[in-house]
Amino acid sequence: MKILIVDDEALARDRLSQILVDSDEHDVVGEAENGAQALEIARESAPDVVLLDIRMPGMNGIETAHHLNSFESPPAIIFTTAYDEYAIEAFDARAVGYVLKPVRRERLDRALERAARLSNITLSEIAKRSGISDLREHICAHTQGEIKLIPVRDVFCFRADQKYVRVQHRNGEDLIDDSLNHLEQEFADEFVRIHRNALIAVRQIDTLKKSSGGQTLVTLRDGPQGEDSALIISRRHVANVRRRIKER
Fold first, then answer.
1. Packing angle between helix 105-113 and helix 10-21, nearest 10 degrees?
2. Between the CA of residue 190 and those of 123, 155, 205, 241, what are the distances in Å?
3. What mean pLDDT comes out for the span 165-186?
4. Which H or E run contains 122?
5. Does 37 score more than 90 pLDDT?
6. What is the DSSP-derived secondary structure letter of residue 153?
7. Nearest-CA neighbor of 182 among 90, 244, 119?
8. Domain with CATH 3.40.50.2300 in the chain
9. CB neighbours of 237 closer than 8 A, spacing ≥ 6?
10. Phi then psi dihedrals of residue 93, to 5 deg
């Protein structure tokens, strides 16, 4: 079994690695000290299981697990955590694999035997019940065999593009596999739907104006500029867009 260890504490990584090295059944294919590094190593090594610290600075374990789920062959996840009553209750309620720190060999062996892939719905429920933020701070795009993490704060808009979603952001644009409906639900506080095929960042709205044909158009502050850069707001969404502008 190929295993990736992810923890921001070197001692914790060393402890897990030593336990696993002593076993002939497991192969440690890498160690990462943060979520972004974990995604890169996972892309290269294709682990069967990721031992994932749930509380890390920057990208926490929940967000990292969400991004791992976007892989073509997602690994199984086992969370490692210091004792947290609510988190443990949440793990037990959803039959999610976990080991408590300091990690004991017997508990780790049992967790590995039951390791399973976790759905995004399960991850969201775990986050909610254990008081951990489930709001992603990055969008994960897979481009030419590489992983690109796009900060949500840098996104101008999400636009449906056949079976994908096109993300337009400060450094260009990329295609992702997320659905527009899921993105709308997840980032409801930051984005607003302007059309059945488009969401835009409320903070990026510059002006609304009428076209010669009577359509309502929106221009973005830092987005693409020029005559063709304005986006059409469908009639059914105009009132809500105006409301969101007033509330920001």
1. 70
2. 21, 10, 11, 12
3. 94
4. helix 120-130
5. yes
6. G
7. 119
8. 2-130
9. 192, 193, 194, 195
10. -65, -35
What is the topology classification, in CATH, of domain 2-130? Rossmann fold (3.40.50)
Of the candidates 206, 157, 204, 205, the one whose C-alpha atom is nearest the C-alpha of residue 183 is 157
Which is it for strands 205-210 and 216-220: parallel, antiparallel or unpaired? antiparallel
CATH architecture of the region 138-247: Beta Barrel (2.40)
Measuring CA to CA, how many Å separate 120 from each of 64, 89, 167, 229? 11, 18, 20, 34
Q: What pLDDT digit, counting tens, does each position of 205-214 carry?
A: 998 999 888 8
Tokens at 188, concatenated = 């409801």
**Burial class of residue 246 in the structure, from the number of CB atoms within 10 Å of its CB (0-12 exposed, 13-18 middle, 19+ buried):** exposed
Say what the pTM is.
0.86
User: Which range among 102-106, 183-187, 189-193, 222-226 shows the weakest confidence by mean pLDDT?
Assistant: 222-226
Token pair, residue 64, equals 């990292």
- The Cα 179–Cα 223 span in angstroms is 22
Handedness of CA 85, 50, 133, 15 (dihedral sign): positive
Which residues are paired to 232 by β-bridges?
217
What does the alpha-carbon distance between residue 59 and residue 56 come to, in Å, rounded to a whole number? Answer: 7
Q: How far is CA 199 from CA 28, 121, 211, in A?
A: 41, 22, 20
